[in-house]
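Question (not urgent): is this output format expected?
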Amino acid sequence: MVTNSVNSKPSSLNDWTYSYLKEKILNLEFKPGQQLHIEDFIDELEISRTPIREAFLRLANESLLDIKPRVGYFVSQMTIDDIRDLFEVREMVETWATRKAAEVLSENDLVELRKLLGESTAAVNSGILDKYLEVDIEFHGYFQKHIKNKRMLEFMESIQDLTYRERVLSLQSKENVRDTLVEHKRILEALIDRDGNQAAWLMGEHLNNVCNRLIKHLYSEVYSYGKKL
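Got this back:
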């Protein structure tokens, strides 16, 4: 993610303000359902209303903000149905990509995947969850590189920000982080055996498990998201 400093504004205030607010939303510093007020950022960012309003509209166009006429702007919700929908899409695409990857991954690719798995484990053991998240995204993205369907890739990119919020939320579940490492290892073992069907099945099981663990975590915690889950 791009890190923006209030004290180092670029020449394009519109783009800078958009990136600053987007990062806060994606990292759940602004909670789902939270209302955002343009006036609150005028003094904080030391800018006028115009770039803030333009940023809000861009974020709304990307489904990260909801606009309620005559009420205001709200960070888009993360409901149970939203999470299930996102994982259903991911499962359809990533199981296909994993099956295909088993056929085309080179030995060097497999070495790289082993390296990523080792980095994930080290990051968790060291408590560096930001690094774990970065490597997790890279691990899953490795399989999508082998999809030749341009439209499918464009669609996955279009929901990348929404799935990022889900990933950030999943870090709050220690059970999920621990079990994900085990499931990634099983997927890699199937790929090493060049068993595409098994690798695809394990990827589907992994994504379904993550979805269920995340929902379980949401039910067990109290969130000030503005609406019930």
